[in-house]
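Subgroup meeting minutes
Present: P.N., E.W., G.H.
Scribe: E.W.

1. P.N. recapped why we're keeping a running log of single-chain structure predictions: easier to compare across weeks, and new members can see raw inputs and outputs side by side.
2. G.H. added today's entry (133 aa).
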Amino acid sequence: MNDRQRSASRSGSAQADSKKTKAGAFDVRVVIAGLIGFYGVVLVVMGLVADDAAAQAKTGGVNANLWAGVGMVIFAVAFAVWARLRPVVVTVPEGATEDAGTAGGRGAGTRTPGAKKTSGAKKTSSGKKKSRR
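Output recorded in log:
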């Protein structure tokens, strides 16, 4: 039994009242693939268009921009394929909407200005928290 099967069997009831969605464009691999791919295409174009004898002399006769760009494009394609074949699955609690936890268009976890914290601890003069009893 692998780790995914173990975690699924442990959280049986939690899985029943939640739904799973793919991270999609928010997957960091997609962002990395896009950036590396863009720079790779720029280098390939520069290697094909702006290749002169001075640049060839600096690199020992190798078109460095072209080969670095080709390598970056291959890397970007590999990341994009990896993100497509093994997507990140995010578990969203049932009943939660995109605006859940927000009040008046504010992000989740934000407080209105001047609102007090309602924790059970009180800060002392030394800055440490002291519990109330």
